[in-house]
Amino acid sequence: MNFPRVIFFTFFAFFLAQFSLFAQIPQVPAEVEFADLIVRINPQARREIQLDVDALYRNPNYLKVKQERFNLYRPIIERELNNVGVPLDLQYLVIQESGLIADAVSTSNAVGFWQFKQGTAEEVFMRVDGQIDDRKNIVNSTRGAALYLKKHNNSFDNWMCALVSYQMGLGGAKAYFGTRYNGKRVVDIDRNSHWYFKKFLAHKIAFENSFTTLVSNNQRLVEVKVSGPVTLAALAKKYGVTTDHLKEMNKWASNGKIPSGSGYSLIYIQEGDAPFKPAVIEQKPSSQNQNSYKSNPAYKQANSYPRIAGNTTKASQPDQITVNELDGVQAVNNTTQEKFADKIGIREKKFRRLNDLDKGERVEAGEYYYTEKKKAKAEVETHIVMPGETLWSISQKYGIKLSALKAKNRIRRDKDLKVGMVLNLQDHRKRGEEIPMVKVQPLSNQRVSQNTSSQPKVETQVSQPTPSQTSTPAQPSQLTHTVSSGETLYAISKKYGVTVDQLKSWNRIGSQNIISVGQKLTIYKP
What we know:
By secondary structure, the protein is of the alpha+beta class. It has helices spanning 3-24, 43-57, 60-84, 93-98, 118-123, 138-156, 159-168, 170-177, 195-207, 211-214, 232-239, 243-249, 290-295, 337-344, 348-354, 391-398, 402-409, 489-496, 500-507, and strands at residues 31-34, 37-41, 186-189, 219-231, 257-271, 280-282, 298-302, 308-310, 321-323, 326-330, 368-370, 382-384, 422-424, 459-463, 477-482, 520-525.
């Protein structure tokens, strides 16, 4: 055996592996967007931050563990930050604080995911006693951290100062910064800038774009609300996991027991992908047509949302059905929010908040409404915008919070929606990234399903046409209806045998369902 040659090739392979890792290390740019700030970093500070980024990448195995842990908890973290109104860029702070280790303890006796001392935790409504330690609960600790950060940002109107105050305390940050950054939207970072913020920038740069390529997605976090008193051993049998696993994932239940009360957030890991088909599926190209596929993708959109389950014969009564696995109810008649909320037994303001409704919007017959909080992301990855859809109607369709849908796609107004846009329903679109567009077939060739569980599931094919696609679908007859006094969309839809969704789609009627006397409505009849 030629040992020198073996040694040479071993060394060469090691060198290539290290070079490959180095090539993946993100480089610190001269300018970074953070929350609502533009952060300009001078060369000396860039070198300093780059050293921290390089250190995070030094051990590939350790990095991968962190990235997978972050990927696992990220949906919950994003949801809780969104609910409080804290920019999602702040989520990288939890990696800096604890590496997402539930029972991490600092030298100053700060505990948990977000590293709270007991007194500070109790100030933001966390429970810390012999039975429960919310600092080790990813849901409650993230909500507490969001409340803490937002409260401090109210003093500075500057998220950099608010973030540094997380380490220094509000008084210390005020003494350190004064008022020179209050309200500023451009921040310059140099050698004298606070070390904690530079350390945070290193974590943001290291983790925000690389986790998708290095993290396996064969695990997902399941969150369920439970009521006590109950033991983790009993819950383990119910959910088909081991008691040790529940104890490991729920260290906030200090003695393996959940005391009396309701709404405790229990989490556990489930193997495999979520058992739902995506709304938009990339069709796999043939091996001989790879190039044409890249420039001409095809998509298939399923119209199986919202997913209705439960006692659908009593869908108009509370506690009978779920809509996208959330408690919901169907409206029978057009009415006011006040009357509908009173009928289903919740406060009007809560009903409006749960469904992202503006004050005064009417409740429309046939629509499904939620009676518990919508989610921060949908069960499917994407949605293709169809004619007449609004941000609100899409958020209701998938049970995703309207603010989350807007944030993920960087769209704030309905007028920015365009037919054929492929919206993200799970991941956030990067700054500057264009929203993909596909060509949507004419409305005459689509069946727009009304949201009823008895309606058969219909799939609409949506694709980019190739030059050879020259066939033209048959055109339906087009009618015009003039709105009379007292008429509603529901009444008009029944008159012509179409759905309310179709009427709204054909006439680009927004989420408030407003029509006026004398308005001309276009109606298509096959």
